[in-house]
């Protein structure tokens, strides 16, 4: 089924469409959430919250405002970040390290040996530190250009083009 | 508008990341609808980001997150849950049920078959019994006839008249035992051939002067009678006995061309 059709049905609270979309994006969302909370049980909890929230707010989504993936990615990032700000989380995760997603990729034991995962590992290994940082902030953390340029101490235009070049490399690796 | 330059600016990557302003988002959306290259570019960027982020997933196995989500949302999928639990049980029941019914069916068939065999056995036995009873009955009546015959033979009052073959039928013969007191004769027709189809033997009592035949009746049971001894009423003052072959039903007067045997009562 076309993505547009699925999304349209999902907006009309079609449970099957919802499940299909869940299956399409669950791994991606899990990756984003885990990268922020760094705990499987908490990530699981946030995952549930994200999709429940998506279901309840299905009618508010509009393709004019952005991609469906982008919409659910925003919900996931915000939910995960909210979680890290909760008192209970701060207590248990005093020493939450500030590693980038690449550290997870390099140390993860559960990462399967699918072609995609291997390809991404290779790509990540070759990535310059600047690429890792930009991708981490823009996609995993949801930083705006301005926030990223401040964080990385870079001109705003450089962030945009660097990000473009980094994603180009990623695409060559995972899509071709 | 320079599409290529627009794509190369890197705005689409930021669009997918969801970090553009509402105004920029709307602009990109409208350009996507107008230019398929832009749409394709967005799809490719999205697809690569989905793969990259998914690769970080810890893939928590053993936890059915979606089931938990459905439960929390109160989706009515109790059916699937019930089935997944009840499936093995119902399978076991189904198999056992089928096995039991097959055994039962086989048993019923065997019983039915056995019953039919026994029924036909009984039928055979009954037929045999009937046959034997008939044989006994036949023997009994044969014995009775034989006994009667013996009595007749031993009786002094009985006149024995041999009937000799006549004309073309010289080789035939018969005997009449006449019990005058009981006014009956016993005809021993052993020496007569089987009558042809549609013909019967007719027995005649004769007065000789003038020659007057009186019919004593036809022998309708000639073929079926084993002893060929027939008891016939005879109240006449007979002087001779004759047997002719007549059409079925008999005739008023004897057909002399078909006179088989004839015998005169000897005057004692």
UniProtKB/TrEMBL annotation, chain A:
Coiled coil: none annotated. Keywords: DNA-binding, Sigma factor, Transcription, Transcription regulation. InterPro entries: RNA_pol_sigma-70-like (IPR039425), RNA_pol_sigma-70_dom (IPR014284), RNA_pol_sigma70_r2 (IPR007627), RNA_pol_sigma70_r4 (IPR007630), RNA_pol_sigma_r2 (IPR013325), RNA_pol_sigma_r3/r4-like (IPR013324), WH-like_DNA-bd_sf (IPR036388). It comes from the Bacteria. It holds the Pfam family Sigma70_r4. GO terms for molecular function: DNA binding; sigma factor activity. One of its GO terms (biological process) is DNA-templated transcription initiation. Residues 21-88, 126-172 form the RNA polymerase sigma-70 region domain. The keyword Transcription applies. Belongs to the sigma-70 factor family. ECF subfamily. This is RNA polymerase sigma-70 factor, ECF subfamily.
UniProtKB/TrEMBL annotation, chain B:
InterPro entries: Anti-sigma-K/W_factor, RskA_C. Keywords: Coiled coil. GO terms for molecular function: sigma factor antagonist activity. It comes from the Bacteria. The keyword Coiled coil applies. Residues 99-255 form the Anti-sigma K factor RskA C-terminal domain. The keyword Coiled coil applies. Residues 115-149 form a coiled coil. GO terms for cellular component: plasma membrane. One of its GO terms (biological process) is regulation of translation. PANTHER family: ANTI-SIGMA-K FACTOR RSKA. This is Anti-sigma-K factor rskA. It comes from Flaviramulus basaltis.
């Amino acid at each position: 089924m076309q993505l547009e059709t699925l999304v349209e049905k999902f907006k009309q609270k079609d449970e099957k469409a919802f499940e299909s979309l869940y299956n399409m994006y669950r791994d991606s969302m899990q990756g984003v959430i885990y990268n922020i909370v760094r705990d499987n049980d908490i990530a699981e909890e946030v995952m549930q919250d994200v999709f429940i929230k998506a279901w309840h707010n299905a009618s508010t989504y509009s393709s004019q405002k952005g991609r469906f993936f982008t919409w659910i990615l925003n919900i996931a990032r915000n939910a995960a970040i909210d979680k890290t700000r909760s008192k209970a989380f701060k207590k248990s995760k005093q020493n939450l390290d500030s590693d980038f997603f690449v550290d997870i990729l390099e140390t993860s034991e559960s990462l399967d040996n699918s072609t995609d995962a291997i390809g991404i590992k290779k790509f990540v290994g070759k990535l310059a530190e600047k690429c890792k940082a930009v991708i981490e902030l823009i996609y995993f953390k949801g930083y705006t250009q301005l926030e990223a340029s401040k964080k990385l101490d870079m001109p705003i235009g450089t962030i945009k083009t660097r990000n473009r070049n980094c994603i180009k490399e990623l695409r060559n690796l995972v899509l071709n | 508008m320079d599409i290529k330059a627009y794509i190369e600016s890197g705005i689409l990557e930021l669009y997918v990341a969801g970090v553009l302003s509402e105004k920029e988002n709307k602009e990109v959306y409208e350009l996507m609808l107008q230019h398929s290259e832009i749409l394709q570019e967005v799809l490719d960027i999205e697809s690569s980001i989905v793969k990259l982020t998914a690769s970080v997933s810890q893939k928590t196995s053993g936890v059915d997150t979606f089931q938990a989500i459905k439960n929390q949302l109160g989706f009515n999928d109790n059916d699937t849950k019930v089935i997944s639990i009840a499936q093995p049980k119902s399978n076991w029941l189904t198999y056992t049920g089928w096995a039991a019914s097959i055994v039962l069916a086989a048993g019923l068939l065997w019983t039915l078959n056995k019953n039919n065999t026994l029924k036909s056995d009984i039928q055979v036995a009954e037929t045999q019994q009937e046959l034997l009873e008939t044989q006994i009955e036949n023997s009994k009546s044969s014995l009775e006839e034989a006994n009667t015959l013996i009595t007749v033979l031993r009786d002094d009052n009985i006149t024995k008249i041999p009937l000799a073959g006549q004309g073309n039928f010289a080789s035939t013969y018969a005997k009449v035992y006449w019990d005058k007191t009981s006014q009956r004769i016993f005809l021993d027709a052993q020496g007569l051939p089987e009558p042809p189809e549609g013909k019967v033997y007719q027995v005649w009592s004769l007065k000789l002067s003038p020659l007057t035949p009186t019919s004593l009746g036809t022998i309708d049971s000639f073929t079926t009678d084993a002893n060929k001894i027939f008891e016939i009423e005879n109240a006449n003052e007979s002087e001779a006995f004759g047997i002719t072959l007549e059409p079925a039903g008999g005739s008023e007067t004897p057909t002399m061309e078909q006179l088989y045997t004839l015998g005169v009562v000897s005057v004692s």
